[in-house]
Amino acid sequence: MLKRKIADLIEQHVKSGSERILLIDGARQVGKTYIIRYVGKKLFPNFIEINMLEDSVGERLFENAKTVDDFYLRVSAIKGELMGKAEDTLIFIDEIQAYPHLLTMLKFLRDDNRFTYVASGSLLGVTLAQTTSIPIGSIRKVRMFPLDFEEFLYANGMNEFAIAALRKKFEARESLDEAMHGKMMDSFKRYLLVGGLPAAVNAYQDTRNIQAVREIQREIHEYYAADASKYDAERKLKIRRIYDQIPSNLENKKKRVVAQRIEGKKGSTFANYEDEFEYLISAGIALNVQAISTPTFPLIESSGKNLLKLYLNDVGILTAILYGNNIRAILEDEKSINLGSVYECVVASELIAHGFNLFYYDNRSKGEVDYLIDDYDSLSAVPIEVKSGKDYTVHSALNSFVKNEDYHVKKAFVLSNTREITTNGKITYLPIYDVMFLRVTP
After folding, report:
1. What are phi and psi of 249, to 5 degrees?
2. pLDDT (tens digit per residue) in 67-86
3. Do 47 and 40 contact (CB within 8 A), yes or no?
4. What is the pTM of this model?
5. In what order do the strands lie in the sheet with 412-416?
6. Which of 99, 211, 237, 418 is deepest in the core (most CB within 10 A)?
7. Which of 51, 25, 4, 28 is nearest to 220 (CA)?
8. Do 103 and 128 form a contact (C-beta atoms < 8 A)?
9. Per-residue pLDDT reduced to its tens digit, 50-59
10. Are 122 and 26 in contact (CB under 8 A)?
11. Max CA pair span of the chain
């Protein structure tokens, strides 16, 4: 079984007697159903799982469940023998977005307090925005992501003791020795190939066959690209165009989305594609990084939506698109291959999975810095530069950024292949795998 850190959160929530129902959001194929099922069966003698998407294309039993009693009647028709009490019965409502009215009903199910509930779904950001009565105060929405690098290490034999020792080294800014650094870089490069989609990770564990892994990644990528079922044909095509262009955008120097390139129409602006961007981001299949030219804390107050970078939600999908079955591009440091977009993608997915909202610094005269994150301890922005080559100490835009007194920068990071952790002024150079230890501390 793959160790997922969110399992602890789910377990703590359902055991706490919270007045809110836990709602797990996330892209399809990231393991939501599996981990909720695992925790539910572990903790509750009576575990009832209802997939509303399957119901919506089958019996449609819950389509007209408008009241709590209606809902219970329908549950009893299929799982009546498992309906015990709140302390021993968990009802798991999967793919709840198939019936948006059930999101409103969660409040009344919780008020009734007859059973314990967990719900999950995808596109919940879009669905909640279109729900007439949002159950504010009755739900706790948590987003789930593919396996991050730490979880990938667990999947490949590293234990919690080893991770804790690595974290302690990071916190003390102590470099690993050559042997351990080599082991970590080898694991990191394998993560770039395999990514964090559970099906791909399991295939890698079972077979060590990159072709089997790539086949799964291509299938899921195609599924993501084709899945926009709630939209009409024209909007689906626009969503597909934007999604398909993400890898090529990342190979450009600026890496950001250019609205006029989406359909090749002059005069197109971001406003023309606002719903399409919202779908990709809310679906969890694209990660958004917004531009900021005046980086003051909190960063959200200074962000602009008209300069946007999009990354794929899984680095394994990206390397499958870029390099196919050729593993040398990742594992052997081919001089002709620039891994900049791959490194930026994995850093984006790590930071977002760890709770950060992502921004980047854009200044016409001073250049760009790859990422900006909020530091709640110092109440300032932290710039992060990502380097895949040997020239990791060359970063003129970052130098200008940290020297600007108006920005009140306390610290900055450069992530690269370097082994040694060093600090020069406000800038600390970290090995790329240490991104796993950057966490939000509000």
Report:
1. -60, -40
2. 999 999 999 999 999 999 99
3. yes
4. 0.94
5. 304-312, 286-292, 359-363, 367-375, 380-386, 412-416, 427-431, 422-424
6. 99
7. 28
8. yes
9. 999 999 999 9
10. yes
11. 69
